[in-house]
Amino acid sequence: MRDNMTDSTPDRRRWWALLVVSAAQLLVVLDGTIVNIALPSAQSALGMSDASRQWAITAYALAFGGLLLIGGRVSGAVGHRRTFTAGLIGFSAASALGGAAVNPEMLFGARALQGVFAAGLAPAGMSLLATTFTEPRERGRAFGVFAAVGAAGSAVGLIAGGLLTEYTSWRWCLYINVPIGLLAVLGATLVPADRPIRDGGRLDIPGALLGTGGLAAVVYAFNQAEPHGWGSIQVLGLLAAGLLLLVLFTAVERRAADPLLPMRVLLHRTRAGAFLAITLMFIAMFGFYLFMSYYTQTVLGYSPVQAGWTLIINAAAALVGSTVVAGRLHGRVGPVAVIVPGLLAAAGGMLVLTRLTADSAHVLPLYLVPALVLTGVGLGCVIASTASLAIAGLRHHDIGAASAAYNAAQQLGAALGTALLNTLAASAATSYLADHTEATRAAASVHGYTTALTVAFAILLAAACLTAPLLTRGRTAEASPAREEENAPVH
């Protein structure tokens, strides 16, 4: 007997599940950027200090990134739909609490609560797609749409944040989650139910503590690298502690009877390639989004809303890459034929921008549009293919853990990319001003951006070279998830 939903599930309910999960994915991704735009207004309204304001971002990132593995385990044990629904309700309530904040502490606490519920919501949603869509071509289309929403979420967050802050209030950057979340909760009642793991064993407490502590320490170190520098004792100490905890976590998981993250999930060749590809892609792309935000506003003089609308090009291209390219090719070619070209396309977009100078003319048509199209198509291809590959061929027992690990890879990549590339850009700009005393601040800024994007270009090239050998046998692994699940024991 199959332990997941079969293709006999009514089509309407299957595709309704895609709509609801995509709405939830939009909430999780959008919330990573929408508050960034609102933060200056929130700081002024609540009287935050410059030193404490970063907790509006960090509290969410720490809770989300640190608790993802536990969220994946809970999703499997309780049931993906139940966890998904509880996550939506909790996320909506935390958003309302944050919007009503009367002091910084209340806002920071609400942001942390959002992260807690997002840590269950994200892997549960991805797991629902995996258990609902088992036929390869339908799964390809479903994960294409899911990836498009994820890829476009950051851009949508910037646009929505600018519009809501400018025309209403910063509070609506949080309140907006409530109606979306509640509509998704209503829709979730129509999503086919899955069966929780009946004998999932006891929660791996040592693994949970080590994994949560390790991920939280690494994410926090990346967040602290921007204000304090990579050489600071605080950052190096946090990184060392985080890596030590993750090494201990790996050792514990290899011996645990009921591990939080079974090592077989990570040690599978093509799945490891998918995790590596998405991590490196997010490192590069979050540096790219940072560049686009600062360059368009500080150098080109765009308003926050105009800067956000510029990224619509990237979002549209991501939609094409994930649905038209990756979705249609899913199951017809191996993942290497989609992921590696996607990485190279994104690298090409970065390369275009490295040619910019402060005096470049016709910037939008000659530089920004080509870069936005190439990076968008590449991102869409990579997210759609890696998300599907991350859970392909897995037993129902392991899908929650794999979904959580995939989301954790994205979170680590985003945190590292933002900190690393922003630090490189700032250092390069400072050095440029010191070496060129006659240079304008705009020229120094552009030099810093192009230096960081050159590193992002190199990261994407390295990603293509490193993942290609791991993915060359991916077609066989991805084409047979149903067979492995059929042979899996029923829990």
TrEMBL record:
Q: Which SUPFAM superfamilies match?
A: MFS general substrate transporter
**Protein location:** Cell membrane
Segments passing through the bilayer? 15-35, 55-72, 84-102, 108-130, 142-163, 169-191, 203-223, 229-252, 273-295, 307-326, 333-354, 366-391, 412-434, 446-471
Note the PROSITE patterns from the entry.
MFS
Output the Gene3D superfamilies linked to this UniProt entry. Answer: Multidrug resistance protein D (1.20.1720.10)
Membrane topology qualifier = Multi-pass membrane protein
Alphabetically list the UniProt keywords: Antibiotic resistance, Cell membrane, Membrane, Transmembrane, Transmembrane helix, Transport
Domain Major facilitator superfamily (MFS) profile per the UniProt entry, residue ranges: 17-475
Stated name of the protein: MFS transporter
